[in-house]
Amino acid sequence: MAKVHVIDHPLIQHKLTIIRDKTTGPKDFRELVNEVALLMAYEVTRDMPLQEVEVETPICATKGFTIAGKKLALIPILRAGLGMVEGVLQLIPTAKVGHIGVYRDPESLQPVEYYCKLPGDSEERDFILIDPMLATGGSAAAAIGFIKQRGCASIKLMCLLAAPEGIQAVQAAHPDVDIFTAAVDDQLNSHGYIIPGLGDAGDRLFGTK
Q1: What is the pLDDT of residue 175?
Q2: Calpha distance 77→86 (Å, rounded)
Q3: Burial 129-151 (b: 16+ CB within 10 A, else e)
Q4: Cα gap 149→135, rounded to integer Å
Q5: Rounded distance, CA 164 to CA 79, Å?
Q6: With a cut of 70, which residues of the chain have pLDDT below it?
Q7: In the chain, at which residue ranges do the beta strands (DSSP E only) sit?
Q8: Rounded CA gap, 91 and 141, in Å?
Q9: In this structure, what are the phi and psi dihedrals at residue 97, rounded to the nearest 5 degrees?
Q10: What's residue 33's pLDDT?
Q11: 182-189: long-range contacts (C-beta < 8 A, 24 or more apart)?
């Protein structure tokens, strides 16, 4: 079963509290989401493999380590996932960025892919799927499925907040995908919003309603 990693670093929890505050405006909201994404990326990438190399310091030769293994691809789920990408790119500027769009069909209530653009060398990369809110889990589970259909097997899910219902849905559909979140909230309300949550992440990021 996939693991749930709650990243509870004090800096992340402090910034997350300001993000939750309904009086925080779009500018500060965007900046804070960006900062939390950068901090979370340290933990999401903790298991990246290293290889030993030799370098010359100004004093002498020594051994050090560089990143080895597969390169990374960041895949935000449109549109709210866009708010976290820049933070991760500040830490890993060489990562390629794809995009995936998913909506829920009003009649069948099933997730439908309306856009998917992945790096051309996707099979050679480890994927980090990014979405601020893991609520029902339907969109995230569907997006993971769409990515897998294109031959990508190594996937992690990164989100600011998760509801227990969303975690269960992703784990049931994709038991091989670890979930990284800054907090696991109480539950969903009747409209599918996370409680206590932070409202609609996309609207707060882009100043829409």
Answers
A1: 95
A2: 14
A3: bbbbbbbbbbbbbbbbebbeeee
A4: 23
A5: 22
A6: 1, 106, 109
A7: 4-6, 50-56, 61-67, 71-76, 96-97, 99-104, 111-117, 125-130, 133-134, 155-162, 178-184, 187-188, 194-195
A8: 26
A9: -120, 125
A10: 96
A11: 182/6, 182/7, 182/8, 182/12, 182/13, 182/16, 182/36, 182/40, 183/6, 183/8, 183/13, 183/16, 184/4, 184/6, 185/161, 187/163, 188/135, 188/136, 188/163
Give Cβ neighbours of residue 23 (< 8 Å, ≥ 6 apart): none
pLDDT at residue 62, rounded to an integer: 97
pLDDT score, position 153: 83
Q: CB-based burial of residue 80 (10 Å sphere; 0-12 exposed, 13-18 middle, 19+ buried)?
A: buried
**Alpha carbon 27 to chain centroid distance?**
20
Identify which of 32, 47, 73, 46 has the alpha carbon closest to the alpha carbon of residue 160.
Answer: 32
What is the amino acid identity at position 143? Answer: A
